[in-house]
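Hi support team,

I've been running sequence recovery on a batch of backbones for a student project. Most finish fine, but this one hangs at about 90% for roughly twenty minutes before it completes. I'm not sure whether the input is malformed or the queue is just slow. I've pasted the structure tokens below so you can try to reproduce it. Let me know if you need the job ID as well.

Thanks,
M.K.
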């Protein structure tokens, strides 16, 4: 006899979700909903990017087994010692962007100059291919950060396509490689989180329309640098360590992984404040504007949080002068960032 049960009843009984939203399906749906007349080039570009994420995730998973951990013997454009996975991640990302045929300009943390590809790509991509690489050998989460601009009107690809304010980005996000790979993406219409199902080989929508909590008593900063902080930053952090009335006398908790992606991932999900302030010695921050500060600032704002520099200016409105420019940064829950702002000298 033929089984008359509707399909969804059977799948419910077996506890199997049969209508999952993959990243590819999500991207196509968003395009139809928000830009029905779009050419689809950004969708194709995001599709090529997800291949890079899967490939990097695969290499990170097998790193310990095939001796990919450790230093490569080279240094990158900002003088950091490169790890083998920095080099491999960079190559994978460059190849994926080149073969997508949708990217004209690429800026990578690992490349001194920008790369201009042949072909008629309409987008410029900025990336930190492996963020948090000092953590790799210990098996701690690292990630890939990216920001995307559409080329300027009439441009055939130049540095001017990326030396622009963060407010001009059309998409941004990161993939964090940990126990599983998590992709957080914004195309300017909120933040959506995807988890890589390694058996299906697909990123699955797991955190739709993610919002950061308004406040949370967690601070995330490398306090080892505090000797070189300006006094008002020292005072702000010292005050967080005092008993908090709202928390019945408990002070803030400190959480610092040392991989920006991991610290931002936690901040997005739990709330709190993450900072890498400029120090009084170099008078500069450590994090790079185009491929660390801007993408994270866009994500945080799109999730309902805030992202500012040490002076309280909106990160996304900074105009970078060089592709590897740095900035002090504060980002996280709106309530926590507003609290920091009250400490900035007028
Ligand atoms: P990268 O590995 O791409 O050079 O980035 C490292 C960054 C960032 O991930 C992290 O927030 C910060 O450096 C940590 O710096 P400290 O070790 O100075 O705390
Ligand atoms: Mn980084
Ligand atoms: Mn890096």
């Amino acid at each position: 006899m033929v089984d008359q049960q509707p399909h969804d009843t059977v799948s419910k009984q077996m506890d199997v979700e049969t209508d999952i939203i993959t990243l590819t399906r999500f991207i196509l749906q968003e395009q139809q909903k928000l830009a029905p007349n779009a050419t689809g080039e950004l969708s194709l570009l995001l599709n090529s990017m997800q291949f890079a994420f899967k490939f990097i995730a695969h290499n990170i998973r097998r790193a310990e087994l095939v001796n990919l951990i450790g230093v490569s013997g080279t240094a990158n454009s900002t003088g950091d010692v490169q790890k083998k996975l920095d080099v491999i991640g960079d190559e994978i990302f460059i190849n994926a962007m080149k073969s997508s045929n949708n990217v004209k300009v690429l800026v990578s943390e690992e490349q001194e100059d920008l790369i201009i590809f042949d072909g008629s790509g309409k987008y410029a991509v900025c990336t930190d291919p492996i963020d948090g690489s000092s953590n790799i050998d210990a098996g701690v989460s690292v990630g890939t950060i990216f920001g995307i601009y559409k080329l300027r009107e009439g441009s055939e690809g130049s540095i001017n396509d990326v030396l622009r304010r963060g407010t001009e980005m059309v998409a941004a996000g990161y993939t964090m490689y940990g126990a599983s790979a998590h992709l957080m993406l914004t195309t300017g219409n909120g933040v959506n989180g995807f988890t890589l199902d390694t058996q299906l080989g697909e990123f699955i929508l797991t955190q739709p329309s993610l919002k950061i909590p308004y406040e949370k008593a967690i601070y995330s900063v490398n306090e080892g640098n505090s000797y070189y902080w300006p006094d008002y930053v020292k005072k702000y952090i010292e005050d967080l360590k005092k008993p908090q009335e709202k928390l019945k006398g408990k002070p803030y908790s400190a959480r610092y992984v040392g991989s920006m992606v991991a610290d931002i991932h936690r901040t997005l999900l739990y709330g709190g404040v993450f900072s890498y302030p400029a120090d009084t010695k170099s008078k500069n921050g450590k994090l790079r504007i185009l491929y660390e500060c801007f993408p994270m600032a866009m994500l945080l704002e799109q999730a309902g949080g805030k992202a500012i520099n040490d002076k309280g200016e909106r990160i996304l409105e900074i105009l970078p002068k060089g592709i590897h420019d740095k900035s002090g940064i504060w980002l996280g829950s709106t309530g926590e960032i507003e609290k920091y702002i009250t400490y900035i000298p007028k």
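--
Follow-up from support: It reproduced on our side and the slowdown came from queue contention, not your input. Residues 20-207 form a domain with the Fructose-1,6-Bisphosphatase; Chain A, domain 1 fold (CATH 3.30.540.10). No action needed from you.
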